[in-house]
Amino acid sequence: MFLAMFYLKNWFNSEKPLFDHYPLSILKENDMYFPSFYGIIILNHSKSSINKWLTEPVWSRARICACADGGSNELREFTLEREEERLGRFTPDFISGDFDSISSDTKQFYEQEFNVPLVVAGDQDASDFTKCLQELQKRTNHESLKHVYVFCTFGGRFDQAMSIVNTLYLYPDLHIFLISDRDITFLLKPGLNRIHQIRSPMCGKYCSLIPFNGPLKVVTSGLQWNLNEQMELNFSTLISTSNAYSETEDDFVTISTHQSLIWSMTLSKED
């Protein structure tokens, strides 16, 4: 721990930007760090995620909620499973995509019963997730929307999982949190990042630092296996998966990086 802190102090000076992340706040009612202005996106194949983590307070407090194409099928099924308590309370502000995944029943359900706009976005160079984010920003004024919580999955097709991660890099100025049934994943920014709430009962045992953007140097503190400036994260040599938190009493870990970096942390219901 002392060695990691020494590297942090010497490798990064006070002029580097500091980013504090509270990834679990969205899942905790009355949390003091609950964001005041955020959006929600439901992606395809997200049923297990919304079953575990989507609640009415999370949905109703959002400034804007949307489904990306087939995500609307997941939300409709989620709603109708407990129709008496959910019908009319989980209605998206819009659905966007190229509509190759949404079912005809889902279209009818949202268009005719709830007048939900269907925004056709046919750009084949962008994923439904990316197109949904673009529409989300248009409807909220780009500068106002800073936090977006995305209910998704990383199971199933590998290419779709990689497409979801790619979208994080396309929107580095947004704080996008990918919520699956098992973990929360987001992009760390160049600078000094502090991830809080690691002692929360909702936080799982494991965490990962993944260098999707190429080789980079990272200095950490608060992890069971810390990284220092003599080590390089690189897909051809070393990546830090299945890491864990140290036994200190600190409620955060610190990660210093010169480049964007993927952070993923498990949730307690998985462990």
UniProtKB/TrEMBL annotation:
GO terms for molecular function: ATP binding; kinase activity; thiamine binding; thiamine diphosphokinase activity. Pfam families: TPK_B1_binding, TPK_catalytic. Residues 191-262 form the Thiamin pyrophosphokinase thiamin-binding domain. SMART domains: TPK_B1_binding. GO terms for biological process: thiamine diphosphate biosynthetic process; thiamine metabolic process. CDD domains: TPK. Keywords: ATP-binding, Kinase, Nucleotide-binding, Transferase. PANTHER family: THIAMIN PYROPHOSPHOKINASE, THIAMIN PYROPHOSPHOKINASE 1. This is Thiamin pyrophosphokinase thiamin-binding domain-containing protein. It comes from Rotaria magnacalcarata.
